[in-house]
Design goal:
Length: 495
C-alpha cells in the first residue's frame, strides 16, 4: 500500500470511528452506529492479526477521541493542566482505550474467512470487546453500541439481554450492511437475514408492551435538589457555610414530600465537622416525616479512609459506600509513583476507599431503593445485582467535571438504559444536571434544566419484580459470544 493510499485508508478508519458517537446521545442518529460498524468490518476481512489490530486501534481511537472528548474538559478545566498537556493526556488515554478495544478483534483473523462466519463471529467479538471494557483495570464501559437503541423498538429487548444484546444486534446489522454493499453474500442469505432482523425488531416492539414488573404500594412524592455548585472551591472551608445554607434554602419548601434527594457529595465535609447542621437536619426530617438521602463524604476511623457515600436521614434507613471508583478522580493508580507528580494527581477527594461489594438498599417509607453513585450507573451488571430486590433505582452524580460537553447527556442515556434493563423507575439527582425522573420503560418524564439551580419535584411509582436481565445479567450473551468464537476458531484450524 502506497503512502497516499495508507493515509486515505487510516483517515477513513478514523472517520468511521468518529461517526459512531453520532448514534448516541445527544445526537441519537442510530443509523450512524450501523454505518460505523459496517465500515470497520469492511476493513477486517482477510487480514492478518497484526493488520487487524492496527486497523481496529485506529478506528477505536477515532471513536473514543470523538465520543469521549469531555476527558479534555475534565483534565484541563478541573485538573489544572495546561491545554497542550491536557490534549496530550486525552490523546494518550484514548489511545489506551483503543488498544483495549482492539485486542479481542484479533480473533477475527483466526476464524474462517467466509461471509457466514463473519456475520456471526464479528458481532460476537464486538460485544466481547465491550465486555472487557466493563472490568479491565476497573473498566470504562462507555460508548456501547446498544445505547443507540434506548429509544427504538429494539429497546424492548433490554429487559431480556441488556445493553450487550442490543450491541450484538447493532453489530449484526452493521456486518450485514457491509456484506450487502460489497455484494459478498448470496441474495437468499440477504433475504433470510433481513427477515430475521425484521422479526427481531418487531419482537422488540412486542416486548416493549410487556410488563416485567408490577406496581407496589403508593407512589412517592419526590424532590431532587440540584444546587449547581461550581467545582472550583467546592472543598474550600470558606465556602462550606454558603453551600450548606444554599442546600437548606433549596430544600425548605419541600419538607412536605415523602423523599428529598441531595446529589453526590452535596455536603462538602464529613458529618463530624458539622454536628449541629446534621442534627438539625435529622430533627427536621423526623418532624416532617420526610426521608432525606444525601451524598456525603464519610470518614472511617478504623481504616482512616474516606468513602464517597449516600446516607439516609429522617424515617429512612441505610448507608451506601461507592464500590466503583473513577481513576484519578477518586483514586490514583500507582499512587506511590504518581501522587505529587502533577496537580492532576492531587485533586481534592482523590483518595477514596472502596465500599463493600454487597450492601443493603435504602428503606424509604416501606420501599427499598438501590443506589448507584455517579460512574457506577454505567455498569449494567452492578446495577442489576444491586437493584434486583429494590422497587426504585436511585443514582446521584456531580457532572460538573464534564463542563458543557456531551458527557452528561451520554451519562443520562446510560442511566435510562439501567431503568429499561431492570424495568424499575429511576431517580437521577445531580449537582448541575441532568437531574431527571425516569419511568420503568426508560422514558424521562421530569427533567431539570442543566447548569441551573433547580428543585425537581414529581411522583415515582415503586415497582417490584425482576426482568430476565436482572436475574441473569450479561452472562448468557457473553457465553454465547465466546462459544461462537471458539467454534469458529476451531473450525478454521480443522481446515
Amino acid at each position: 500500500m502506497r503512502g497516499t493510499e495508507k493515509l486515505q485508508h487510516y483517515s477513513g478508519l478514523l472517520f468511521a470511528g468518529a461517526i459512531f458517537p453520532l448514534g448516541l446521545a445527544p445526537f441519537n442518529l442510530w443509523p450512524a452506529v450501523l454505518i460505523s460498524i459496517a465500515l470497520l468490518f469492511r476493513s477486517l476481512q482477510h487480514k492478518t492479526i497484526k493488520k487487524t489490530l492496527l486497523n481496529t486501534t485506529v478506528y477505536a481511537f477515532g471513536l473514543f477521541f470523538a465520543g469521549a472528548s469531555w476527558l479534555y474538559v475534565s483534565i484541563h478545566e478541573y485538573g489544572f493542566i495546561a491545554a497542550p498537556l491536557a490534549l496530550l493526556a486525552t490523546i494518550l488515554f484514548c489511545l489506551f482505550l483503543a488498544c483495549i478495544f482492539a485486542i479481542p478483534f484479533a480473533l477475527s483473523a483466526l476464524i474462517p474467512q467466509t461471509p457466514i462466519s463473519w456475520i456471526f463471529a464479528l458481532p460476537s467479538i464486538w460485544i466481547l470487546s465491550e465486555w472487557v471494557r466493563t472490568w479491565f483495570l476497573t473498566g470504562f464501559p462507555w460508548l456501547f453500541a446498544g445505547y443507540s437503541h434506548t429509544g427504538t423498538w429494539l429497546s424492548g429487548w433490554a429487559p431480556v439481554g441488556g445493553v450487550l444484546w442490543l450491541s450484538f444486534l447493532s453489530a449484526f446489522s452493521g456486518i450485514l450492511l457491509a456484506l450487502i454493499c460489497q455484494g459478498r453474500i448470496k441474495v437468499s442469505v440477504v433475504r433470510q437475514s433481513t427477515v430475521v432482523m425484521l422479526c427481531v425488531v418487531f419482537a422488540g416492539y412486542i416486548l416493549q408492551q410487556y410488563q416485567w414488573t408490577e406496581e407496589s404500594g403508593k407512589p412517592l412524592s419526590v424532590t431532587l435538589i440540584q444546587p449547581n455548585i461550581p467545582q472550583s472551591g467546592k472543598w474550600s472551608e470558606e465556602k462550606q457555610t454558603a453551600i450548606l445554607t444554599q442546600l437548606s434554602a433549596q430544600t425548605e419548601g419541600h419538607w412536605d414530600k415523602d423523599l428529598i434527594i441531595w446529589p453526590e457529595m452535596a455536603v462538602p465535609t464529613i458529618p463530624e465537622r458539622i454536628p449541629v447542621f446534621m442534627q438539625d437536619l435529622q430533627k427536621r426530617a423526623l418532624k416532617t416525616n420526610t426521608s432525606l438521602l444525601s451524598g456525603i463524604v464519610i470518614y472511617d476511623n478504623e481504616t482512616r479512609r474516606y468513602f464517597n457515600s449516600m446516607i439516609a436521614m429522617g424515617p429512612s434507613t441505610g448507608q451506601y459506600n461507592k464500590t466503583r471508583l473513577v481513576p484519578f478522580g477518586e483514586y490514583v493508580p500507582f499512587e506511590s509513583m504518581l501522587r505529587g507528580l502533577i496537580k492532576f494527581f492531587d485533586l481534592p477527594m482523590s483518595s477514596i476507599a472502596l465500599g463493600a461489594v454487597n450492601q443493603h438498599p435504602f428503606s424509604v417509607h416501606g420501599h427499598l431503593i438501590s443506589a448507584a453513585i455517579c460512574y457506577e450507573v454505567v455498569y449494567p451488571d452492578l446495577v442489576a445485582r444491586n437493584s434486583i430486590d429494590s422497587a426504585i433505582i436511585m443514582t446521584v452524580s456531580n457532572d460538573t467535571w464534564f463542563g458543557r460537553s456531551i458527557g452528561p447527556k451520554q451519562h443520562m442515556q446510560m442511566a435510562q438504559m439501567r431503568a429499561l434493563e431492570n424495568a424499575k423507575p429511576l431517580m437521577r439527582g445531580t449537582n448541575n444536571g441532568i437531574s431527571a425522573l425516569v419511568d420503568h420503560k426508560g422514558r424521562i418524564y421530569q427533567l431539570a434544566e442543566q447548569h441551573k439551580i433547580a428543585a425537581l419535584s414529581g411522583i415515582v411509582q415503586p415497582r417490584i419484580g425482576a426482568t430476565i436481565f436482572s436475574k441473569l445479567r450479561s452472562w448468557p450473551i457473553i457465553f454465547i459470544a465466546l462459544l461462537i468464537c471458539i467454534v469458529l476458531v476451531r473450525a478454521r484450524k480443522q481446515h
